[in-house]
Amino acid sequence: MTEVVVDVGSWAFKVVWLKEIDWANKKIILKDYKIYPVGEGIFGKSYSEKALMQPDTYAQYVKDCVKNFGISNSYTFLLLPSYFSRYAVRVVPAKVEDMVDQMVEDQLRELPLIPVGPEKQIVKWQITERGKIFRVFMASILTDNFYDLVKPWAEAGVCLTGVDFDTFNLTNFVDIFTVKDDYKQDLTLVVHVGASDAIIQIYHNNSLKSSDQITITLGDKQQASPAGYTVTKLLMDGRKLNYQEAEKFKKEANIIPDDLSKTNPNFEMIRGVLYGFLTSLNNMIDRKLASLRLDVSKGYLIMTGGGSILKNFKEFVKKNWYFKPVELSEIWEVVKESGEKVPDDDVAILAPALGVLLR
Question: Which residue of 7, 190, 222, 240 pairs with 79 in a disulfide if CB–CB is 3.0 to 4.6 A?
Fold first, then answer.
């Protein structure tokens, strides 16, 4: 039985201990949780690069995390960051569920997610729609990167019960909202803005239809995504702050003005990223809806991830977009066993790890 979930992020390890799930009241009760910051420059930036630029530093952070939080010998589920994987949602023409595994393997041989041989990548998948068709969510990571990320946890004495991608478990967290009969004909958009990537998932009619990453252009440079670190780096350079100071500043300062006609120097530093985010998001959604042949009259927006907790960011999106924002507390109430409510910003950061607890 899993006792602990560790979500390996590029800026922090998120550690969650479960007490119990109150399904009737949509409540997740935690024994505790910790957000353990790690340094810059440790990780690569994409699936094709080496996962670890500083493997010894990463291993030391793992040892310190295990020791400080007492998770040695604990049954632990490990989540890997999505930016080291490539993923897709595909329809598998299987007639019965027992055929899905073989059909998925056949598809991956013909159209691999990563353009290398099957022996050089590890692929995981889960069925997201059953019926006349089987829709399958697949993700793949280079084998060397998988073991580079996982091995230090085993060497630190953690008993691993499973390893998965954060994208899959984000789906588990929002599933209880997307399957409501009241909303199943509407489109639900989940935007997970992490430090190094942004995941965009589209749900319709009780099913995950697509999962993608988006890119934006900032000046003459192509950014990996409109992710949290992009904003942090702009504030570091513009205000001459270190990483920790910039992270604190973007959570606490009124960078995004309530009245967008009354700007300020801090907002001007990140304006291009924010509007690029909305433009890329709109373009991707329009393209996906056309390819999926969905005619949706209204939709809902769920935002998660550390990059989404930039102060006033959700209000900014609401003013500039037509989807109705959904508060995370409308999906799950998350509390400690003492009864203390877990802040919404922390729930946004912990969403994939909480999704593991709901498997």
Answer: 7
